[in-house]
Structure of Phosphate-binding protein:
Amino acid sequence: MNFKKISKLVAVSVVFGMLGTVVAGCGGGAKQENTGGAPTSGIKGSLQVKGSDTIVNLSQAMAEDFMAKNPQATIAVTGGGSGTGIAALTNKTCDLANSSREIKAEEKAKIKEATGKDVKEYAIAMDGIGFIVNKENPVNELTNEQLANIYTGKISNWKEVGGNDEKIVALAREASSGTHVFVKEHLMKNQEYRADALLQTSSASIAKEAETNKQAIGYVGMGYLTDKVKVIAVKKDAGSPAVLPSEATVKDKTYPVSRPLYVYSAGEPEGLSKSFVDFMLSAEGQAIVKKMDFIAVK
């Protein structure tokens, strides 16, 4: 498979942050104004978007394109994990929350209690969670059960799954990550992560560790897959074909570990929030989804 590098976008994001093009932090009290016209014209104000690390580069790319078309609009995008974004929405310190997992009923209830508004959900892309190892690792495919057993600690040596006689180093996202929760719920069937799992603060750090650590295995969204690591083909069970994550296999649901990526708001989006949500779901926004190696929903 050919996967695009993400380093350039990360660098651009940092530069934009340093120059003040994107105002860091969350400030739900920021003024939002839409003076009418097309969704990406005559728009001004500021917007705070926070949450999923999986989506942060995609959301940043969309924000940069949107702001280029609407120079009077400022959109700040920060990561921290899906749980962090949802908490910020609850605390009214951001306007939109990015999440790589479905919001929980108790989280909806807290937002309703805090804001008096029902949560609105928008699926902006589809994603396949890729399991990655060092390029020198001889293992090419694993079943859902083997992956679950690796992450729960039932399998601790690569030789148990056809690899070298070496200890497995399991890389996982921290608990606030939507990807952490998704893997736990959908792959591990709510079993606990192994005690020695190395919890990482970002998908980029997992990818970087897998590049250099010959014993490591980690998971990242498709937008973080690069040619510097090996992507493991996943089998639903021992009798099923091994499948790599791709646009085609996520769309036809043959890749076993797939999910929607969401944006949440408290109540119907208004003003700049609505304009940006509309942009994300537009043909222009969905073209950026594809460019970032995720799967468009439209």
